[in-house]
Structures are given as structure tokens and as C-alpha cells.
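Try this one yourself first.
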């Protein structure tokens, strides 16, 4: 099969690998779409500590089941599926306390085991989620990022009537905006420097969009979310959290980045500063949301590239061109 292989930091190739054969409890998926995200950029750059090389990247997948192991239950050949790429050991302290997303022995498709930037990928059957026939595979490959958003709101636990402020209208920021009213937002304001993304934020439900935080003057918000990972945005965001409000760090900052906080305000306002990492007990709900609600998620996919153009597609993600970039193995 054709596959992308990251031999080591900075070494990306598209070449031929032997076809995987599914284990007894795995399904073999012919990949139709696989999204590229910031994590993949970090993996290629050697800045993602968990990555194990050589590696086939790709953790945002959709495709058709072409073979099933003998212990697989309830998934038939021909079914369109997406899959939760993450596996937790179940034995470490975070796992035993219900926090498998920060497992000490975390494994994930496209991070520690072969991922879906390939014509074929093997997936444990219990991580695969069947989708209705005819469902758009591009949207199916957005279920993984959507499940990160669902987990983000699980962490945040907003209250009905809260005023929301979101920094960054990339794929994740727009998904956060798309679901904000459903988790209680009274108003949704977005800070985003790019005009075309501001327009999209409005179409996904933002009531007000501004290019920079200064335009908000002294306004404060009960819920402030960073979906940009930018230090200047995060510092601006922290200054706009209302008394007893909550700040969620959702965007991925550079591993060594630091921001200034005002500890007196954290204390005197009794604010909460929270973090949200990946997926936790949120994949099935994300799948249902993508299937049952008309969220218009297809608009988030700006480019679908052939597998052979992986390096160019990755550069587009690195430079923030377009929105969600996906590859389509097998054309
Ligand atoms: Zn991702
Ligand atoms: Zn664990």
C-alpha cells in the first residue's frame, strides 16, 4: 500500500509499505479521508514527545471496512467508519481515576502506532464507530477534532447564560463556536485577525467578531477560551475573564511557551484557569453530534489533497493556509 512515513524528525516520505492484516480483534479500513492537524506538524518537527519513529502519521480518519478479524463484533465489511485514535492502558493512576487522556502509557494511531495517512489502517474494532451509509467521509474525519471540543466543554462546564469569548477561528475555534449555544452561551464573541475566518465565525453562530482584543475595551466574559495557542492571545484572554469566570486553554501552544498571569486577580476574582487535552469519554457523543445535527461541518474542510502531496499539505497546515486540510488516500 501507499503510505506516508515519517522516518524521523524532518524526514517525510511517501512510499510503499506491506499491506497490514487485521489482528483477531481489529478491522482493516481502506482510508477515504485523513485530516492533518497541528499535532502532525509537531510530530514531523520532532516536538511531540510521545511520537515513535518511523511512523505513519494520521489520527483523524474515515474509511470503509474491508476486512474484519474473527473476534470483531457488530462491524461488517463495507461499513463507513471513523475511529477514536487513542488507547489508554487502564492500569496507571490517571487511567484508574478516569483520566485516560493523560495516561502514562498512552498510545494513539498516528502517534505511537501506524496511523491513517495510508491506503489501509488496522484499528481495534471497539474504537471504530460505524456511520450511516452515504455519510460524507470528510465530515466523518472531523469527528476526532469534534470529540476534543466535546471534551473541552466537559472540562469547562459552562453555565446557562454565560457570555463566551473565543480566541481563534480555525477549525477548532469554529467547532467551539458551533456548539457554544448548545452548552449554554448567551452570547458568543470571537477574536480572530483574519477577515475570512471572522466571516466563517459569524456563519457558525458568533454574534460579534473582532480582529483584536483591544476592540472589546473593558468588556469581561464568564467563559474565555483560547483556541489559538498564541502567547499574546492567551495573555489578552486572561485579562478578560469576569469575576468567578473560567478560562480554558484549548489551543496548543509551543511546548516551551510561557505566559504572564496576575496571581492577585486569579485570587481576588476567584477565577478558574483550566486545560483540556484531546479526547476523554467524548468520542461517541461527537459522532452522534456530527450525524444528528446539521452543524455544517463540511465547510471546515478547505483542501483535500492526494496522499502523494502530504508534504505540501502539511506545509499548508503549518502556515495556517485554508482551514482543515485532509488527504484522500487512493484518490
Ligand atoms: Zn488532530
Ligand atoms: Zn494509563
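Now uncover the answer:
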Amino acid at each position: 500500500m501507499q503510505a506516508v512515513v515519517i522516518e524521523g524528525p524532518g524526514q517525510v516520505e511517501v512510499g510503499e509499505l506491506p499491506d497490514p492484516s487485521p489482528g483477531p480483534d481489529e478491522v482493516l479500513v481502506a482510508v477515504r479521508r485523513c485530516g492533518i492537524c497541528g499535532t502532525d506538524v509537531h510530530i514531523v518537527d520532532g516536538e511531540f514527545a510521545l511520537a515513535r519513529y518511523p511512523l505513519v502519521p494520521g489520527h483523524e480518519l474515515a474509511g470503509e471496512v474491508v476486512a474484519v478479524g474473527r473476534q470483531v463484533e457488530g462491524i461488517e465489511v463495507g461499513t463507513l467508519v471513523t475511529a477514536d485514535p487513542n488507547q489508554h492502558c487502564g492500569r496507571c493512576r490517571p487511567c484508574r481515576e478516569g483520566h485516560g487522556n493523560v495516561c502514562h502509557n498512552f498510545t494513539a494511531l498516528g502517534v505511537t502506532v501506524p496511523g491513517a495517512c495510508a491506503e489501509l489502517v488496522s484499528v481495534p474494532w471497539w474504537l471504530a464507530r460505524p456511520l450511516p451509509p452515504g455519510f460524507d467521509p470528510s465530515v466523518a474525519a472531523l469527528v476526532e477534532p469534534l470529540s476534543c471540543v466535546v471534551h473541552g466543554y466537559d472540562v469547562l462546564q459552562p453555565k446557562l447564560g454565560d457570555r463566551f469569548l473565543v480566541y481563534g477561528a480555525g477549525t477548532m475555534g469554529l467547532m467551539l463556536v458551533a456548539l457554544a449555544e448548545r452548552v449554554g452561551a448567551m452570547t458568543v464573541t470571537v477574536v480572530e485577525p483574519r477577515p475570512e475566518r471572522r466571516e466563517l465565525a459569524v456563519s457558525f453562530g458568533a454574534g460579534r467578531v473582532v480582529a483584536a482584543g483591544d476592540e472589546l475595551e473593558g468588556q469581561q466574559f464568564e467563559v474565555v477560551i483560547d483556541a489559538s495557542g498564541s502567547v499574546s492571545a492567551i495573555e489578552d484572554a486572561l485579562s478578560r475573564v469576569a469575576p468567578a469566570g473560567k478560562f480554558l486553554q484549548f489551543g496548543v501552544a509551543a511546548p516551551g511557551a510561557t505566559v504572564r498571569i496576575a496571581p492577585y486577580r486569579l485570587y481576588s476574582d476567584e477565577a478558574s484557569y483550566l486545560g483540556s487535552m484531546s479526547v476523554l469519554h467524548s468520542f461517541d457523543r461527537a459522532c452522534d453530534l456530527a450525524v444528528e445535527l446539521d452543524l455544517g461541518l463540511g465547510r471546515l474542510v478547505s483542501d483535500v489533497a492526494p496522499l502523494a502531496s502530504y508534504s505540501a499539505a502539511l506545509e499548508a497546515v503549518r502556515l495556517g493556509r485554508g482551514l482543515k486540510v485532509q488527504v484522500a488516500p487512493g484518490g
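Discussion: The radius of gyration is 20 Å. The domain at 2-141+296-328 is CATH 3.90.180.10 (Quinone Oxidoreductase; Chain A, domain 1).
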